[in-house]
Amino acid sequence: MKERWPAIVRHWKGALSKYKYVLLVMAVGIFLLLLPVGGEEELVPDASEAECFDLEKFEEKLAQTLSQIEGAGQVRVVLTLESGSRQVLAQDRDSDGEGGGSTTTVTVGRGSGTQEVIPLQTLSPNFRGALVVCPGGGEAQVRLRLVEAVSALTGLGSDRISVCQGNTSF
User: Fold this and answer.
1) How far apart are CA 121 and CA 116, in angstroms?
2) How far is CA 24 from its chain centroid?
3) Nearest C-alpha neighbor of 81 from the set 124, 51, 122
4) Any idea what the Cα angle at residue 80 is, between residues 156 and 158, rounded to 5°?
5) Which residues pair with 87 in a beta bridge?
6) How many CB atoms lie within 10 A of CB 90?
7) What is d(CA 100, CA 113) in angstroms, rounded to the nearest whole number?
């Protein structure tokens, strides 16, 4: 057995050196087959599952957050929208040789004859203005903190945010 082992090793060594490039190409091919491909089907949420912007919930959450600011007290927030949230849909563009063409919205069949559009991106709403009413709204430091916080969370400039002092009971 001791004499046979080196002979087997020499035999395989000779075969590997003779076919090393073929084996290398095969190994690279197997590696490439195991890589993920970009053409796989992505799961598209149903229209019922799609996240839509709820202004009332956003106002409540913003009011709860602003109430945590020192000196503000219980806060009420009213926001106005310039435009609501919207989705950018996948489109297929066909062009002819003369510079013209057509654009169609890409849809996916969901069985039983239903078609759904493919959203690429959901754009957040554009706010027009904000009103913040709280007991601490009369103090300059509190007003500044509230304006900065609302501006950071909504993207509004300080000229579109109004902070007013209100009574403590809502």
Assistant:
1) 15
2) 41
3) 124
4) 25
5) 122
6) 15
7) 32
Residue 30, sorted as left (phi over 0), alpha (psi -120 to 50) or beta, turns out to be: alpha
Name the one residue in this structure whose structure tokens are 């003369």: 98
- Residue 119, phi-psi category: left (phi > 0), alpha (psi -120 to 50), beta (remainder): beta
Question: Is-contact 134 76, C-beta < 8 A?
Answer: yes
| Series of mean pLDDT values for 10-residue runs along the chain (170 residues) | 69 79 86 72 46 82 92 91 70 68 68 70 80 91 93 91 80
Boundaries of every domain in the chain = 4-34, 55-95+105-165
- Distance (Å, whole) CA 5 – CA 3: 6
The one-letter amino acid at 60: E
Pick the closest to residue 126 from 89, 80, 160 (CA basis): 80
pTM of the model: 0.53
How many Cβ atoms from other residues are within 10 Å of residue 129's Cβ? Answer: 16
* Fold entry, domain 55-95+105-165: GMP Synthetase; Chain A, domain 3 (3.30.300)
